[in-house]
Amino acid sequence: MADFDAIYEEEQLDNEPLDEHAVVPTVPDPILIRGAGNMTVFGLSNRFNSEFPSGLVSRVAPEEFKATIGRINGILKKALPVNVKWLFCGCVCCCCTLGCSLWPVICLSKRTQLTLDKLLEWENSHLYHKLGLHWRLTKQQCDTSSMMEYVILIEFIPKTPIYRPD
Question: Using a CB cutoff of 8 Å and minimum separation of 24, what contacts does 29-36 make?
Answer without folding.
Answer: 29/55, 30/153, 30/154, 30/155, 30/156, 31/55, 31/56, 31/153, 31/154, 32/140, 32/151, 32/152, 32/153, 32/154, 33/69, 33/151, 33/152, 33/153, 33/154, 34/149, 34/151, 35/149, 35/150, 35/151
